[in-house]
TrEMBL record:
InterPro entries: EGY1-like, Peptidase_M50
Topology in membrane: Multi-pass membrane protein
Domain of life where this protein originates: Bacteria
Organism annotation: Rufibacter roseus
Localization, UniProt: Membrane
Family, similarity comment: Belongs to the peptidase M50B family.
CDD domains for the chain: S2P-M50_like_2
Protein name in the entry: Site-2 protease family protein
Cofactor: Zn(2+)
Amino acid sequence: MRPKILLHVFLFLVTLTTTTLAGAEWRYGKLFFVGPDGSLDWGGFLTWQEFFAGFAFSLSFLGVLTVHEFGHYFTARYYKIKVTLPYYIPLWLGITSSIGTLGAFIRIKERIFSRKEFFDVGIAGPLAGFAVALPLLWYGFTHLPPPEYIFDIHPAYAQFGNQYEDFVYSQQGNMALGNNLLFYLFEQFVADPERLPNHYEISHYPYLFAGFLALFFTALNLLPIGQLDGGHILYGLLGYERFNRLSPILFTAFIFYAGLGFIPLDTSPTDYWWWWGGYALYLMIVFRPLFPEAARSLMLVVAVFSAQICCQYFWPGIKGYNGWLVFGLILARMMGIFHPPCPDERPLDQKRKVLGWIALVVFILCFSPAPFIFE
C-alpha cells in the first residue's frame, strides 16, 4: 500500500476511535477520563457496552461523512480531475465534550474546466450524504427506547417521572439541539410520540445525534456562498459574474442574522465600549475581503451595525444565532466569499437545473437557524 494511502487509512482509523470515544461520552452524559473532582483519571476506560454505544454513533456519523466525501471524490474521478482521498480530522481531548472530529475534506489538485464539472462535483457530496442520512434517521426514530431509558443516564430525573422536563431544565448549563424541518417531520409523522426525547436529551441517542449532526454539516456545506458545496452549485447555475455579485449579498445577510442580539443595548454604550468596538472590528475583518477599497467595507460595517441596533431597539426580543459568527469569520478569511472562474462558462442543461432546485430543498430540510442552544 502506498504511503499516501496509508496516511488516509491512519487518519480514518484515528477518527473512528476519537468519534467512538466522543459518542460514548454523549451517550452516557459523562467524561470517561475526568474524575468526580474534575481531575484527570486515565484509568477510566470504557466497558464493552459503552464502547459499542459510542461505536454506534461513530459508525453512523462517519458513514454519512464518508459517503459525502466519496460522492465528491468519485465525481471528480469521473471527470478525470486529479483529487485526493478524504483526509479525516480527528479531534478529541478527553477533558471536554466534542464530537471527535472536525470533519473530512478532499483536495482537488488541478483546475476544474467547466461550470458543469463544478456543479456535479459540488452537488454529489451533499446529495449522497443526505441519501444515507435519511434511512439513518428513519431507523433512529422508529427504534426509540422507552421513556425510562433517560433515567439510566440521569437517575435524578426518575423522581419526577415522565414529566421530568417540567422540573429539570430551569437551571443554567443545559444544551439543547435546535430543530430543522426534517427532524420536525420525523417527530410528527414517523416517531412514537410517547418515546420522543426532549431536545435537551437527543445527544444521548446515538443514531438521532449522528443524524442531526449529519444534517447540520450537510446544510453547512450547502450554504450558497463562496467555495462551499452550495457555492459550487449556485456558481454552476448562475455563472461567474452573476454568482460573484450575489454571493457577497448572501454573506452579508448571513452575518446580519448571526449578529442580531449580540450588541448589548440594556446599558450605556460607555459601559460596553470594548464589546461594541470588538464587534465593529469583527465586522471590518469579515467584510474587508468583499471590496478592494477599505472605505466601501467601512460603509458596509456602519450599515450592518446600525441596522442590527435598530432591529434590536424596535424589537427587543429579536435574536439571531451568534454561533454563526465564528463560521462567518472562517468563510471570509479562509474559504473566501467569491468563486474563481473556469474556462468553460456554458450554461447547465435542464436536468442539472432541476438537481439545483432539489439541492435547495435539501438545504431547507436540513438547515437549523439555531443548531446548538446553550443556556
